[in-house]
């Protein structure tokens, strides 16, 4: 009698423990799924952010002219000119250009912008990143011209430069920057601004575009004392850019067989490499969240199935006295969803707290992104419903005659 009186209490206690464990499992799964959703959404927005340049049909290669064989500025200028002309003459190449540092690669040179009439000390003037470019670099990379024009071969006889939109707004607010003058202080020779181009994300896709000043590569002696020998060549192709890699190498080696050619990559590959760490974080979070979701589904199914098996006699009697199959199914569903609801409430609260810890890894996404959380809640409710469906269907088909026997 003592055992019989306490057996229901033990069963109730065991059932409560199982439901509590399911609730904890759902709460942890909710946190992991929300983290994965936030990182995934952030990664998507990084990949589709406005870059300021194109990545399709573009092939890039780094070229370094050794000082031992290219001692003078004239030799470096001559090589770059011949290489660009030969690249543009290749079948399937629409345009070719060069730049001292390609977007998403290492930053090379920054300096202040010294405009005419600015009497401030040099450290107090606006800072910008400077790049050496060729005539057709902007067309090749798809950088939009906002005002003015691109440089041409006729500009070799005078000093010219282009600036980015943000630099134009900062240095000449409310004015037309085209036609303004800047210089490499303290040089007395002024440089004419001939164009304003769109801002580009140079350091990484998740950082704001810096102010930029673009100057022709043949004016390297004015800005840096000599024409740079370290350049990145870019070509825009009409076909798969990777298929042009051998042709690009052949052009460079024809001009100089001993010249090494490094990092021959498509712009799409360069962009993919720049977000590799973010991609890994997103993938890792997704794997853990998927595993947790699977375990939560199995846990809910296992608990409900076990409960139905233990309550077979009770359910059979309910059916015998008139309970409808839909009522039995609802009873089982309610038992399965109850710990899920509790786990979701705790999990959402935990996700809000954990989201603040990963805020610095997010881009264009808030830690309390409501659509992402609603999507996770909907997914877990759908999974819980599917996990409860089979046990509920089995319970509604229990034969009361067999149970009563």
How would you describe the overall organization of this protein?
The protein has 405 residues and is of the alpha+beta class. Helices cover 51% and strands 16% of the residues. It has twelve helices and twelve strands. The protein has helices spanning 2-47, 73-88, 137-141, 165-171, 220-224, 245-255, 267-274, 276-310, 312-320, 325-357, 370-396, 400-404; strands at 58-64, 93-99, 110-112, 114-115, 127-133, 145-148, 160-164, 181-183, 191-197, 212-216, 230-237, 261-266. The strands form two sheets. Strands 3, 4, 5, 6, 7, 8, 9 and 10 form an eight-stranded mixed β-sheet that branches. Strands 2-11-1-12 form a four-stranded antiparallel β-sheet. A hairpin with a 7-residue loop joins strand 8 (181-183) and strand 9. It is elongated and about 105 Å long.
Low-pLDDT regions: 1-7
Please give the alpha-carbon distance between the first and last residues.
Answer: 24 Å
Largest sheet: 8 strands, mixed
Radius of gyration: 33 Å
Summing up helix and strand content along with how strands pair, one would put the structural category as alpha+beta
Give the averaged pLDDT, no decimals. 86
Number of separate helices: 12
Order of helices and strands: HEHEEEEHEEHEEEHEHEHHHHHH
Taken from the alpha-carbon principal axes, the silhouette is elongated
Instruction: Kindly state the number of beta strands.
Output: 12
Helix content: 40-55%
DSSP strand content: 15-25%
